[in-house]
Design brief:
- The complex is a heterodimer of chains A (528) and B (192).
- The termini of chain A are far apart.
- Chain A is mainly beta.
- Chain A folds into two domains: 7-328, Methylamine Dehydrogenase, Chain H (7 Propeller), CATH 2.130.10; 413-524, Immunoglobulin-like (Sandwich), CATH 2.60.40.
- Chain A is 14% helix and 50% strand.
- Chain A has four helices and 36 strands.
- Chain B has 192 residues and is α/β, with parallel strands linked by helices.
- Chain B has one domain (15-191): Rossmann fold, CATH 3.40.50.300.
- Chain B has helices spanning 2-10, 30-39, 102-113, 116-124, 146-153, 176-191, and strands spanning 16-24, 53-60, 63-70, 89-95, 131-136, 163-167.
- Chain B has a six-stranded mixed beta sheet, sandwiched between helices.
- The radius of gyration of chain B is 16 Å and the shape is globular.
- In chain B, 42% of the residues are buried.
- The chains are: A mainly beta (528), B alpha/beta (192).
Chain lengths: 528, 192
């Protein structure tokens, strides 16, 4: 007898036939006659003709046929007047009031030559100010010419025109235009852009760009859910921080938020291609509904006189109405899921220890990068150039200082030895084994002592027989031959650097400190 | 003390008093029902949606009834259970023409019957609090037949409370007296 289910089956009808040529049915619920009963609006999009069906409860109240292919629908409220219905078709906005045609508004010209009439792609209504000041709303109109128009329905003047990086296919908004409003715009090339009304002039800033195409964006004023075609839903904060990720078993057809302020319920409904509608609370699946065909359009809100009504339209044109159960106990059915939650939380804590939380600096940096990647790259290049220059300057300073020091020390001997040691290097051989002959000659008339010959293979895979030869003394006018065998096993060639240094501390064995007397580079070409 | 009370009531010095709770979804006609009982058929004022609740008193069959006319709006429905503890009878009003919300009405009835306070009431007395269900607006063309309402509410499955379903029209008073008669009888039978 006791039933603890999330949804009550209120109504299911296939006789209303909410089916359209293009298969797109957009729903909106509003109190259109101000009689406390919220009507349901369904826009049936056809290539030639579109229909707007208005349902009062379970009955069809009226059906309005539209002259063009209508693509967008929204309802808006006005002070001291009945709420209106706005339908975007072609380049015109058709306004209906009290279920009758009221006004036709042609959107201003745009395009490169400023004469083209742009077509409307999307519509949304945004509250102008807080309810205690005014209940009027503004119309947000997205057009083909990559722009967003903000229209005041009192006077039908475009208050503002904002250029967008792409054609807006979805507009979601929340807040109050005069105070603080957030507008989310989706473009077909797969990016979501964010506009804030408290940052004047308003401009579209990149919010996120998923790898696969976006199915739907749902925004409840706090959390943004983005469903993509790779069966993934990601939750973001308005600041752009990713909260969680849900992966479902089938393609997503539609998502919507279910908000009940007085019951503190915030659920995400996800409709899948296999006919399932899943309900997630903070990323945890709490309920599933199954239908014969996929649900292509969903809306949740006050319908009729009841709050928390979920209205769905299936592929076959069935209308399904579900009402939230007031007595639903959340802890019972998700008891099995609780362990999963715990596991998830422990996982996340584990993850946290591994991956430190994103710092504010990092978030700021990524934000700036998203905003203007070109500028960021240029800045980086400039920085790295400056760093190179600085390093070079420092090195110059250091090296010139050491020269100064040695100059201060044995002032006369340095140039003497530098001038008087003569180095000749010869490479003999043609195969993988070479013989390196070094000739050291003292052309001065004094004895030069404590010389070290150092060899280093800087390129190629060469192996040297010895890398260091110490010469205790070099008598004047004598020839000192040093013979070192070099092997080039890979036959790739290479380079050997020979340096002759004069040791200033001859006693120490390990470290060689001194100054360069002479050096040579020997290239070994690759052997065939 | 109880004997003294019943002695006084037998002497008609002390009047029999009972609290009844009038609940149901919004726009089902609860306030109109109360108004009919109070004024005896004369509609004095236009009813507006009740906010929170209203307390009214009226008499029937030697019984002084204090009626708690609760608001049926979904945001106020959580208030209902605050009054379950000391009520002697319940009038549950249903809008017979509201096909879509019949499921909600059924669910609310179930929630009320299963509420711990209502169950506790049952244990102190021999049976549960009597519930009169008024299928209001039965004169409307689109009204659901009474048999279908009985089935949709699942009344035959409820055996914890005495339940009576009555088709009514609060504007003309059809069915109201018969219903209230039954409820008064039940209250007197169970409490006095």
């Amino acid at each position: 007898m006791s039933k603890n289910q999330l949804w009550l089956d209120a109504f299911h009808s296939s006789s209303l036939n909410l089916k359209a040529e293009c298969g797109v049915v957009l729903l909106a619920v509003d109190d259109l006659a101000k009689d406390g009963t919220n009507r349901l609006l369904a826009l049936l999009v056809g290539y030639e003709l579109s229909y707007l069906k208005i349902l009062n409860g379970t009955d069809l109240q009226c059906e309005i046929s539209l002259p063009e292919m209508a693509v967008a629908l929204c309802t808006f409220s006005m002070d001291g007047s009945l709420p209106g219905i706005a339908v975007g078709a072609g380049s015109s906005l058709y306004i209906y009031k009290n279920f009758k045609p009221y006004y036709k508004y042609n959107i201003p010209n745009g395009g490169p030559t400023n004469t083209e009439q742009a077509e409307i792609t999307q519509l949304a209504a945004l509250s102008r100010s807080t309810p205690d000041v005014s209940s009027s709303s503004l119309l947000l109109v997205g057009t083909e010419h990559n722009s967003l128009l903000i229209i005041d329905p009192h006077t039908f003047n475009a208050i503002s025109r904002i250029e967008l990086p792409g054609v807006p296919t979805s507009i979601k908004c929340s807040g109050f235009y005069d105070v603080e409003a957030v507008i989310l715009i989706t473009t077909p090339d797969g990016g979501v852009y964010i506009l804030r009304s408290d940052q004047k002039p308003m401009e579209a800033k990149p919010f996120m760009s998923p790898r696969s195409s976006i199915v739907e964006v749902a925004f409840n004023g706090v959390t943004i859910a983005v469903a993509t075609s790779d069966r993934t839903i990601k939750h973001y904060t308005v600041q752009g921080q990713e909260l969680r990720k849900i992966v479902v078993d089938d393609f997503i057809l539609a998502i919507t938020w279910i908000e009940m302020a007085n019951q503190e319920i915030s659920l995400l409904a996800v409709s899948l291609a296999n006919g399932e509608v899943q309900f997630y609370r903070q990323g945890i699946l709490i309920e599933k509904l199954r239908f014969n065909t996929g649900i292509i359009s969903m809306t949740c809100g006050r319908f009729g006189r009841e709050d928390g009504v979920l209205v769905m339209v299936s592929k076959d044109g069935d209308l399904i109405v579900k009402i939230l159960n007031r007595g639903y106990k959340t802890n019972k059915p998700i008891s099995t899921d609780l362990n999963a939650t715990k596991a998830a939380t422990s996982n996340s804590t584990k993850k946290k220890s591994l991956w430190p939380a994103k710092t504010k600096l990092f978030v700021d940096q990524t934000m700036r990068e998203k905003e203007d990647p070109k500028k960021m790259y240029r800045q980086f290049q400039e920085g790295i150039c400056r760093l190179h220059l600085r390093a070079l300057q420092e090195w110059m300073n250091v090296s010139s200082n050491t020269v100064d020091k040695t100059d201060v020390g044995p002032l006369d001997s340095v140039p003497e030895e530098k001038r008087c040691v003569h180095l000749v290097a010869k490479l003999l051989g043609s195969g993988s084994r070479f013989m390196l002959h070094l000739l050291l000659q003292n052309i001065s008339e004094t004895v030069i002592d404590n010389l070290t010959v150092m060899l280093q293979a800087t390129e190629g895979k060469l192996s040297l027989e010895r890398s260091c030869v110490k010469l205790a003394m070099l008598l004047p006018n004598t020839q000192n031959w040093i013979k070192i065998s070099v092997r080039d096993p890979m036959s790739q060639g290479g380079q050997v650097i020979v340096m002759v240094t004069k040791d200033t501390e001859p006693d120490s064995e390990s470290t060689i400190r001194g100054f360069l007397v002479s050096s040579a580079k020997i290239y070994i070409s690759p052997t065939i | 003390m109880k004997f003294w009370d019943s002695f006084l009531t037998w002497l008609k010095i002390k009047k029999k008093e009972a609290n009844i709770l009038i609940v149901g979804l919004d726009n089902s006609g609860k306030s109109t029902v109360v108004q009919y009982f109070q004024s005896g058929g004369k509609r004095t004022e236009v009813t507006v949606p009740t906010i929170g609740f209203k307390v009214e008193k009226f008499q029937n069959a030697g019984l002084t009834l204090t009626a708690f006319d609760m608001s049926g709006q979904s945001k106020y429905r959580s208030l209902w259970e605050r009054y379950y503890s000391d009520c002697h009878g319940v009038i549950f009003v249903i809008d017979s023409s509201d096909t879509m919300r019949m499921a909600v009405a059924s669910n609310e009835l179930l929630l009320m019957i299963q509420h711990p306070e209502m169950v506790k009431n049952r244990s102190t007395t021999t049976t549960g609090v009597p519930i009169l269900i008024l299928a209001n607006k039965s004169d409307l063309q689109v009204a659901i037949p009474i048999g279908q309402i009985r089935a949709e509410l699942g009344l035959d499955e409820i055996n914890t409370h005495p339940i009576h379903l009555e088709a009514s029209n609060a504007l003309t008073g059809v069915g109201l007296h018969a219903g209230l008669e039954w409820l008064s009888d039940q209250i007197i039978k169970l409490n006095f």
